[in-house]
Please model this.
Amino acid sequence: MTADVTDRNPTPPTQPEDAPIVVLCRWLSVLDGWATFYETDPAAANRPGREDFSARDKAQALYLLKERGLQTLMNSASPAIRLGLLEGPPQRAKVWLCDKCQRKARQHNMSPREYAERHGGCENCQREQRDPDFYSLYVLQVDYMPVGRWAFHTPVPLGRAYLPPPRSRECPVVGRRPIDGEGRFRRLGQPLDKAARRRWPEPEVVYQTWTALRTLKNSLEQV
Ligand SMILES: [Zn+2]
Model:
């Protein structure tokens, strides 16, 4: 799970006149940096803590809050917000070999699965329909220039519960999901470095994100 911080050094809000959307975006960027740190940094696993949660659990909890933030941004229906889809590669279809192909697999001394992966099966084999957007990412872009610009990402299987369907009018394809030289998905978010973690302790970031989220929600209800 990823989110991009277009501004590599996110600056949490200091101006009382900042729009609620801006405040939420700034804190969501820092929150995402914390989650990415827990998910990627080996130092995170060794961080002393009173609770018995793994770094992975902590990342998951922060990502859940991030999802709430993205949902609230989307509900604001602000013209500053654009949703799009970064297409991932299609998920490989699962194949159940027909009798003939199963025999061939045995002749080649392969398991049915190995054979299906290597040869794909014939037209008589059964194929499971897979989600074409299993590896795609939603990208929620917030353009609040000149104040700031942000882009948050979330996997389609997660975001689908609260975002418009991928490839719809509200969510057109805007690009491909970036892949590195070795064919792996490139991580779009940046972990917070040590100085940033010291400056914005995690409990503070969580508290501020919740506050920004509620403030934006309340401002929407007043309209
Ligand atoms: Zn077959």
In short: The two ends are 33 Å apart (CA to CA).
